[in-house]
TrEMBL record:
Name the record gives this protein: Radical SAM protein
Region of interest: Disordered: 278-299
Listed Gene3D superfamilies: Aldolase class I (3.20.20.70)
Species: Nonomuraea turkmeniaca
Annotated InterPro entries: Aldolase_TIM, Radical_SAM_STM4011-like, rSAM_sf
Length: 299
């Protein structure tokens, strides 16, 4: 099976997060047409492959406000050789269309507290008809929002926390975020990766809009092109990472020594742990009590 992280030219977003270079950025009509053509070409390629493919769309901006991403998610989810098709999204789009997708479609949703009313976001999450994880950036200003979300989300919805870029957390701060996401320790520090075996470049690749294949989004070396098949000769088992460190989940989840394929077994693209929901931690129970949470079951 080949896992593909696809990122086309789309670089616009309807949100305005202070920490993001794509905030309120607009693509020109030509750029949108190019993005659509590239995505449709990619989806056509996936449909023609004789082997199993798992896809995670990782657009720079927001994809699901564009019809071609919604259509690709639905159509790919029904292909017999597609084991999973997931997309990173802010979930600003309408969600009814997701009921047309098969159970192989999934969402990696990020909650941006400054951009969407809490109740609207929570309502959308609760009615999602496909597998999904929900996450938040570990900005101290988000801590109250994250606690509230953990309390209100269904117990079987995993809420991940990404360490904020450039932020060093004290042990006390890390413990607070770990009450919300017991796997926060994986995100807290960048992972030294030089010379370590990583699945990328073997059964995981990164593909951009023109079909250029790299092992991952973070290593610039080109392995070939998807559409002329030249990438295949470059794939080899577990090539070591040439970078000093890997600090993004979509990268280090493939770093073998971390063992995250076991942690996220069955849910690597959409970031859902195999053992979820978990037993409640005392800290989380205390928070729910303090927040006056209802009687819903605990993760
Ligand atoms: S929703 Fe994501 S892509 Fe859009 S501005 Fe916020 S962080 Fe950037
Ligand atoms: S460890 Fe990260 S940076 Fe290194 S090859 Fe793997 S995904 Fe790429």
């Amino acid at each position: 099976m080949l896992t593909i992280l696809y990122r086309g030219p789309l670089a616009s977003c309807d949100y305005d997060c202070a920490y993001c270079p794509f905030a309120k950025r607009r693509d020109t009509p030509e750029q949108l047409r190019a993005d659509r053509a590239a995505l449709e070409r990619f989806a056509g390629w996936v449909a023609e492959q004789p082997f199993e493919v798992s896809v995670l769309f990782t657009p720079w901006g927001e994809g699901l406000v564009r019809s071609w991403y919604r259509r690709a998610l639905v159509e790919l989810s029904w292909l017999p050789n597609v084991t999973k098709v997931a997309i990173q999204t802010n979930l600003s789009c309408r969600t009814e269309w997701l009921s047309e997708a098969s159970d192989r479609a999934a969402l990696w949703v990020t909650y941006h507290p400054t951009q969407v009313p809490y109740d609207r976001f929570l309502g959308k999450i609760r009615s999602l008809p496909v597998r999904h994880s929900v996450g938040i950036v570990g900005d101290p200003a988000h801590l109250t929002h994250a606690r509230r979300l953990r309390t209100d989300l269904p117990a079987d919805t995993y809420l991940w926390v990404n360490a904020e870029e450039g932020r060093l957390y004290t042990d006390g701060e890390a413990a607070e975020w770990s009450e919300i996401d017991p796997l926060f320790h994986y995100s807290r520090f960048a992972h030294p990766s030089a010379g370590l075996p990583c699945r990328t470049g073997d059964d995981v690749i990164s593909v951009n809009g023109d079909g250029t294949v790299r092992r991952c989004h973070f290593i610039p070396e080109v392995l070939g092109n998807l559409y002329d098949g030249s990438y295949r000769a470059a794939l080899r088992p577990r090539p070591p990472c040439p970078a000093a460190a890997c600090d993004c989940h979509i990268g280090y989840v493939h770093l073998e020594p971390l063992g995250l394929y076991d942690v996220f077994a069955g849910g690597v693209p959409e970031r859902i742990p195999a053992a979820w929901p978990r037993e409640p931690s005392p800290g989380l129970l205390g928070h729910r009590g303090a927040a006056g949470a209802g009687p819903s079951p605990m993760p």
